[in-house]
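Write out the 3D structure for:
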Amino acid sequence: MTRVSADTFRRLELATGGVAGAGVAEMSARLPWFDRLTAEQRAGVLMVTQLGAANFVAWLRDPDATPRLTAEAFRSAPPDLARQMTLRQTVELVRIATEVFEARIPVLGGSRTERATLVAAVLRFGREVAFAAATVYASAAEARGAWDARLEALVVDAVVRGDHDSAGAVLSRAAALGWDPAARARVLVGNPPAADPDPRRPSGPDPLHGVRRAAYRAGTAVLLGAHGRHLLMIMSADEDPDDGGGGLRGESKAVLTLTDAFGAGPVVAGPVVGGLLEAHESASRALAGHRAVAAWPGAPRPVDADDLLPERVLAGDRAAATTLVEEVARPLREAGGSLTETVESYLDHAGVLEACARTLYVHPNTVRYRLRRVADLTGSHPGDARGSTLLRMAIALDRLRAAGVAPEPDGSL
């Protein structure tokens, strides 16, 4: 650039205050939201504009100092200014300030050559200021992202551990992450997605970015955390009225959409619970189901944790054994009407209805009625392959506990 004379530098230095004031006045006149800023925020904008004008004069003396001087203008702003104003609003302010600078500063040149130099300098300086603003917002976003990731990890860890002593802190941290405290919750466990080797794609190098995008498309809030080599997801969910247990039958598309966001392998869903503080129960069932799902190669994806009760029992899950006894065997026993005996006879005769009826000395229609009653009470039918396994195991566990062989849920005999 053509050198600027000492007289022009003096005029520029004397005019910086007026140029900055004119820029702020133009912002107030052209931007409807500017007057809604607090007095402190407007003063911060004025200070940044004044410092920018002063830095412009210093930059004319030493153009190599641009990055340092422009970044310094934003660092001098009040700490909450970048948090309160969006990047779009900041770009609008920079555009108006540059237009005012372009209108008022070149006329201070002592010659046509100096005025042309000042026009080019204003445009270049405005570009540098815009880049400096983007850098400030990018740094703030990175800091916020790191803080959010820390909060999210703490919330997920507290849910997995069932830490009820810090319930208030858990809800507060989750609310800071956008979680609705009144939302119901369910936990999904599966393998994390593989990282995309191409950083230009939407998922980028962070494999969880795709999961969050899927949750956003599904309109569902999620909290993500690692559990060993697996990905644990807490999702907001509403129990389907047609599915009394909150299972996967009749589930909305949200669960299927989020399941597709996991990596290859099984995905196990815990039950829907009343809220985040009860999500420990859903997490414990989902994790237990994921440990045992290898025993059922044909399991659907996703699979409900309670559909894996037999496999969970074989894997040593005492909670699953208790569920089988309390929710399957006990209703059959208390209902009477020889339901337990009918189930065992039906299974012993490999599902041959007539043979079962002859053994029980009843009509085959009576057996049909009892089997429908069993399905109504337990949700499982002896004629179904999975149902027969579940019923057989539940009845066996109930008898073992009655005989004092199988441990109770507290570990005692």
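The radius of gyration is 34 Å.
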